[in-house]
């Protein structure tokens, strides 16, 4: 084991060399080991006792390989990362430091709302700020790379990972993807120690898994892929995202991780991406189960040929690449280019100068979970909640008796999936938050009423007593965080039956009921929306979620969230999304009593709550929108303006949305497409002019020949509060 002084001299020698020279000094085995990424338990020092503790035999690799590996998965904690890096450098012949990577998706220790909730804020600045804070906390804790943003477009709420996306619109997902990358990376990774490298995922179209069942087949036309599913990944890369993660699913019959069409031809050649492409967990070896590799050797060959640089958590590369090179079945140049990408990111992060980068146990104590960060999380949580229904119940009065009932009344489970570095113990629970807002003129009585999926008679008796004594009932219901997230698909997306039963029983009391929902997906709200007076969608609002919800319940904040994913009327409608195509037949409805139209016999075509929808305590009025001209040319944009007035009694924030419909294209075009939006805050009685500029480039789309351009012809613009806006502003594009 070398001494720190030897280690320091090795590191400094790397600084003087070029990376090419360093590559030239590496043996083939050392190069291949750089492509291996294992989790923390495989690394010495992780447990503090200097021993490698992982089950290496399960992967069929040697201790030597681990000592030469290039990166670690799931590392966090300044002292721990310093220890692992120190021990690693003592054992690595050339002194090449480890890259420390982790899932910092919506916060590190300060947990922000899940990304689907952040999407509903439509607040790109706060989204970026959440990534800035997450990066700062992660970096001082020794993390170099985060596996985020996840920008998979989603249309199927049965899929558990919709909570990780920002929704069903490619433009909005692109804007959020850019904002997250800016926040995580900043503009100078080498010198800005408060940033981390970002890794956009999961490439590509993971959100389109058939049946909403995780890891399932994805199959669509390349045109559909390019029009809807690819834009947000491209936007993240255009913003400078350093890495890409492959998706588990197939794309056009080939698993993404072994798909050279997707990775070499499109990602690397067409888009010019030359950063690191990392497989998802075990996805290289899964090529065997998918059925495009006979064994681990063929899996390694297909993945390296597809351009996958790092194999996460399996050892096909470590065990077989050397032999594949010797047998001339893999060109060593492919390995060299992969290693060079990894060394380049290590250099860009300054790891050859300082392998510990920003890891600092003392500074970590000051920065992580500090008040300023918690305040930012509370602000974003307030903005992420969506008021779905309110019939004169909210905001609550601060007098009389309030009954707070439900499994989320006193729960720390507000962080949601992908919050592994946060702690539920830190969460401000809803009951405590509400109590903190009341004085002696009001009383809050709290009862569970049921658990998430079970109930006892005693719980019911307690809840009934609380409800009978109350003037108003607040129900805190939803899915516990294991009911969504990875491998968290549900075929029935209603609330658990015991919670629906609780609503039915309490509804019989005839008292005003407001429901707060904590959940990771749009739900089928039968048994809720038709039973209660108000519904506030809080998603998983993060560390400060209880306070944020209490702010909204008592009117200390005014709900401003707008849905970025449709709430289906029922699971039978799925997929249901706003930017759908029209049908040749008229779209009907069960009560229309007409046949041979596009309809269900038993449910409406429309979602229960559409994309862009959300209520406020204010009352926003839109004047008739004006269009500057009904003719647009390739170099002459048009302007669309509307006067917005707050006719309510409290200040509020409206998200004014601009949509466009291309009436006739070379291929069918969506009924509406979001093109822009403005967030406008108005005092009671205040008005303002909201103006948009629309240009030809925003009308381009993928034609049947996969070329991306606009057509002359008729269009309609719409400006309003959500995707159901129907005030038409026709114009023509002439060429
Ligand atoms: C998981 C997820 C991916 C995550 C990775 C590392 O399987 O699919 O999003 O970044 O493994 O934890």
CATH topology of the domain at 387-571: Rossmann fold
Summarize model confidence as the mean pLDDT: 95
The bound ligands are:
alpha-D-glucopyranose
Helix content: 25-40%
Number of helices: 22
CATH hierarchy, class of the domain at 387-571:
Alpha Beta
Main pleated-sheet profile? 8 strands, parallel
Give me the count of strands: 27
Q: Provide the CATH architecture of the domain at 387-571.
A: 3-Layer(aba) Sandwich
Poorly predicted runs of 5 or more residues: 48-52
- Oligomeric assembly: single chain
CATH superfamily of the domain at 387-571: Glycoside hydrolase family 3 C-terminal domain
Radius of gyration, rounded? Answer: 27 Å
What best-fitting shape do the alpha-carbon axes yield? globular
- Termini Cα gap: 71 Å
> Order of strands in the sheet with the most strands?
9-6-5-4-3-2-1-10
Class derived from helix and strand content: alpha/beta
Proportion of residues in β-strands: 15-25%
What report would you give on this structure?
By secondary structure, this protein is of the alpha/beta class. Helix content is 30%, strand content 18%. It has 22 helices and 27 strands. The strands form six sheets. It has an eight-stranded parallel β-sheet. The chain has a six-stranded mixed β-sheet with strand order 11-16-15-14-12-13. Strands 19-27-26-21-22 form a five-stranded mixed β-sheet, with no helix packed on it. α3 (28-34) packs across α16 (332-348), α9 (170-185) packs parallel to α11 (231-238) and α14 (296-306) packs across α15.
């Amino acid at each position: 084991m070398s001494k720190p002084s030897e280690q320091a001299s090795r590191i400094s020698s790397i600084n003087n060399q070029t990376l090419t020279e360093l590559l030239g000094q590496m043996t083939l085995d050392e190069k291949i080991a750089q492509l291996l990424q294992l989790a923390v338990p495989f690394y010495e020092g992780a447990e503090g006792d200097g021993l490698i503790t992982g089950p290496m035999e399960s992967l069929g690799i040697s201790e030597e390989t681990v000592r030469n590996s290039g990166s670690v998965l799931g590392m966090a904690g300044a002292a721990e990362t310093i220890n692992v890096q120190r021990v690693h450098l003592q054992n690595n012949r050339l002194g090449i430091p480890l890259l420390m990577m982790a899932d910092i998706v919506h916060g590190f220790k300060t947990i922000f709302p899940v990304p689907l909730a952040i999407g509903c804020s439509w607040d790109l600045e706060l989204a970026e700020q959440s990534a800035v804070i997450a990066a700062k906390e992660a970096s001082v804790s020794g993390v170099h790379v985060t596996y985020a943003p996840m920008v998979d477009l989603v249309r199927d709420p049965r899929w558990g990972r919709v909570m990780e996306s920002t929704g069903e619109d490619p433009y909005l997902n692109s804007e959020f993807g850019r904002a997250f990358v800016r926040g995580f990376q900043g503009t100078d990774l080498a010198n800005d120690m408060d940033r981390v490298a970002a890794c956009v995922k999961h490439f590509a179209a993971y959100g389109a898994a058939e049946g909403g069942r995780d890891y399932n087949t994805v199959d669509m036309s390349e045109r559909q892929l390019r029009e809807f599913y690819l834009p947000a990944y491209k936007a993240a890369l255009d913003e400078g995202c350093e890495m890409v993660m492959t998706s588990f699913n197939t794309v056009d019959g080939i698993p993404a991780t072994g798909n050279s069409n997707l990775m070499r031809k499109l990602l690397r050649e067409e888009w010019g991406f030359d950063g690191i492409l990392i497989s998802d967990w075990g996805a290289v070896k899964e090529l065997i189960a998918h059925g495009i590799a006979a064994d681990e050797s063929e899996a390694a060959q297909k993945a390296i040929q597809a351009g996958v640089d790092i194999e996460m958590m399996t050892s096909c590369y470590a065990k077989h690449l050397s032999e594949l090179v010797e047998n001339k079945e893999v060109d060593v140049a492919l390995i060299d280019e992969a290693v060079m990408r990894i060394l380049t990111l290590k250099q860009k992060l300054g790891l050859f100068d300082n392998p510990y980068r920003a890891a600092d146990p003392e500074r970590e104590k000051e920065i992580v979970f500090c008040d300023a960060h918690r305040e930012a999380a509370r602000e974003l949580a307030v903005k992420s909640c969506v008021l779905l229904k309110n019939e004169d119940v909210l905001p609550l009065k601060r007098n009389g008796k309030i009954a707070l009932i439900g499994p989320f009344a006193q729960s720390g489970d507000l962080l949601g999936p992908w919050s592994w570095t946060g702690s539920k113990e830190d969460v401000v629970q809803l009951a405590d938050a509400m109590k903190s807002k009341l004085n002696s003129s009001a009383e809050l009585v709290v009862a569970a009423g049921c658990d998430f999926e079970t109930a006892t008679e005693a719980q019911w008796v307690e809840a009934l007593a609380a409800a009978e004594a109350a003037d108003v009932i607040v129900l805190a219901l939803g899915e516990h965080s294991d009911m969504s997230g990875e491998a968290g698909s549900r075929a029935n997306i209603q609330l658990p039956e015991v919670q629906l039963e609780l609503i039915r029983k309490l509804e019989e009391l005839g008292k005003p009921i407001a429901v707060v929902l904590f959940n990771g997906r749009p739900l089928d709200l039968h048994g809720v929306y038709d039973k209660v007076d108000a519904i506030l969608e809080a998603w998983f609002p993060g560390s400060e979620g209880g306070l944020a919800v209490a702010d909204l319940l008592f009117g200390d904040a005014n709900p401003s969230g707008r849905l970025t994913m449709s709430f289906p009327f029922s699971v039978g409608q799925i997929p249901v999304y706003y930017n759908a195509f029209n049908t040749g037949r008229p779209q009907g409805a069960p009560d229309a009593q007409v046949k041979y139209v596009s309809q269900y016999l038993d449910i409406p075509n429309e979602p229960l709550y559409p994309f862009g929808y959300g209520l406020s305590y204010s009352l926003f009025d839109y004047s008739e929108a004006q269009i500057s001209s009904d003719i647009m040319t390739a170099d002459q944009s048009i302007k669309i303006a509307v006067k917005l007035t707050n006719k309510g009694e409290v200040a509020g924030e409206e998200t004014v949305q601009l949509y466009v419909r291309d009436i006739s294209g070379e291929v069918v075009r969506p009924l509406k497409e979001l093109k822009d939006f403005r967030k406008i805050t108005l005092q009671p009685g205040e008005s303002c002019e909201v103006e948009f500029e629309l240009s030809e480039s925003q009308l381009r789309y993928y034609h049947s020949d996969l070329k991306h351009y606009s057509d002359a012809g008729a269009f309609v613009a719409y400006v309003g509060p959500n995707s159901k806006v129907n005030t038409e502003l026709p114009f023509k594009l002439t060429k």
